[in-house]
Amino acid sequence: MKVELVPGVFWVGAIDWNIRDFHGYLTEAGSTYNAYLIVDDKITLIDTVKKEFVPEMMARIQEIAAPEDINYIVSNHVEMDHSGGLAETVHRVKPEKIFCSPRGRADLLRHFKETWPFEEVKTGSELSLGRRNLTFLETPMLHWPDSMMTYLKEEQVLFSSDAFGAHFASSRRFDDELPELPEGYSYQLKKYYANILMPMGTLISQLLKKVVELGLEFKMIAPDHGLIYRNPQPVLSAYQKWAAGTTEPKGLVIYDTMWHSTEMLAHAFVEGLIEGGAVAQLHHLRSTHYSNIVTEVLDAGLLLIGSPTLNNNMFPSVAEFLTYLKGLKPKNKAAMGFGSYGWSGQAVGLINKELEAMQLRLVHEGFQVKYIPDPEELAAAKALGAALAKEHLKR
Ligand code: FEO
To answer: Is the pTM of this model over 0.90?
Structure first.
């Protein structure tokens, strides 16, 4: 069945119902690789799909036009979920030109080692397809150095590459096919932002401002993953909020444990946070995937990270989580380490060092107990949790 965004513009992507691991990110709802075909005097394909989905994309193209009749390909992004199918597509289509950013050209050459008919475009470059025109917008580091977006002027459709995307497999293609977004979609949109775009908050804020300055109006945003937005305002507002680093009065207790002592402290902190008026969550690092935890980190105002000391170090799962979190550059959060130890007790100090390296606000030197916490120590942890909630999680 043809999926038409506006007259003559079609979705020709692929649905990956089964993917559950996207370079380490848990994609429990699957994904889509969205590609778009513009039928004009110059038939233009915007992006391709992951390599193994090329037959699915070609079958969708075939319903609209012979793939060999495609004149132009636009490559908004080199990453292989969008360019993996480019080589096979180019060999079949033999396009007159492939439009990409200067960095995109260099990186596509590096990936494919092929001398295709590249044409570099920059912010503001225009391309006539006949009756309609494309304008390009470079968006370096959103989220790769090569990234760009493509705007179909006459129809006010923004092909936004990864931005505004969500890993979400569905038979639906548009946000408004039901009165509300499908159950779970808003979560996947947030999860995608947290895991892919959180480090780029400042760039996203700048981009959104630039869009206003340029007077670009969007009737539709067509990202490379998830649904196409015929009502872009909610997703634009959500991005504005996330990019600004806005937090909620929400405290997370994130921990691992050897013999349940750190776990006892974790529960005491959660009780304290609740008593202090916070929305609290408890996450055991071997029970909740780290990509789900950082989704909650995105708008949390306080992080309490717990670890026992193992071989003079923090627990490996805690180190893994902190490494992942550090790369995502969380901002506007208070934080503290805690844990139980038996011999030497280095874990809390090491956690605090990592939290400081992330430029989070360290709010306490850390809370630690030797072996099993006694009732007084648990009461102290609870009281500290309540105090931290009152002081750092303003409503
Ligand atoms: Fe969906 Fe950066 O690739």
So the answer is: yes
